[in-house]
Amino acid sequence: METRTLGTFGPTVSALGLGLMGMSDLYGPADEAESIATIHAALDAGITLLDTGDFYGMGHNEMLLRDALRGRNRDKAVISVKFGALRDVDGGWNGNDVRPVAIKNFLAYTLRRLGTDHVDVYRPARLAPDVPVEEVVGTLAELVKAGHVRHIGLSEVSAETLRRAHAVHPISDLQIEYSLISRAPEAEILPTARELGVGITAYGVLSRGLISGHWTAGRETTGTDFRSHLPRFAGANLDRNLALVDALRAIAEARGVTVAQIAIAWVLARGETVVPLIGARRRDRLTEALGAADVTLTATDLAAIEAAVPADAAAGSRYDEAQMAFLDSERS
């Protein structure tokens, strides 16, 4: 597994990271034993970056990671944790809390659940309008100085907010949705991150399975699968987006690879500062995703992909209207 550095100020990590969210939440039931086996397989394959959130399964995801790392060398894993989202007992969402006192509280619980004395990259999942980003980053800087956090990250913030945050303390990386059909960050956010020396950890590289090559029209989702509420998976939008996948499939088959592999390889090809997070919940999906690291896209391939899936080709927004309005990254 090749490595990349999360910007100028962050840690060196594997070129592909593993996102753990789906092992505990939001995509329907997952098999815990298979989840742990998948994490083990990822570590054995050289993946070092493991991304979680304290609100994934209301703490379950962190405890799952703790169990997976038991008996392994903790220092070989780079653990990235998001915090701030508030949940209720039914799994609902109650906003975001990034006040200094809340951040310190969240971290205390995270360290206990993970069974570790530090988090490698700690970041707010979303900002809150009542707390300036300078105050958030200032609090995180205190935790870095105390040794509880190694690096500060951000998630889904605009270029302007990234500049303000970085002026307070160096930011290692910005986690943001970035894929063949989610390319808005290319306008301002990615150039700003490169200018500042901030890395990018790209989530949603397969658009939650939509462009994996495995999603089919008529596939049903349960009430616990949040994709059932996403515009890109609904009605005519889904038909349009699956047509894009079919166009991508023709290119993948010509190369002798899968749709998922060519979609991940495209993100890998966006520069050494970009680290794609793959959300595999099973070992077979992990094996397929790892194959993307061996796919080198030529200029001809990239041109064909661009023609098949233009930057503005996706039908529907990546989140519903309410969630889109809450994203700092979507504010101009």
From TrEMBL:
GO terms for molecular function: oxidoreductase activity. Keywords: Oxidoreductase. It comes from the Bacteria. Residues 16-308 form the NADP-dependent oxidoreductase domain. GO terms for cellular component: cytoplasm. InterPro entries: Aldo-Keto_reductase, NAD(P)_OxRdtase_dom_sf, NADP_OxRdtase_dom. Pfam families: Aldo_ket_red. PANTHER family: AFLATOXIN B1 ALDEHYDE REDUCTASE, ALDO-KETO REDUCTASE YAKC [NADP(+)]. This is Aldo/keto reductase. It comes from Micromonospora lupini str. Lupac 08.
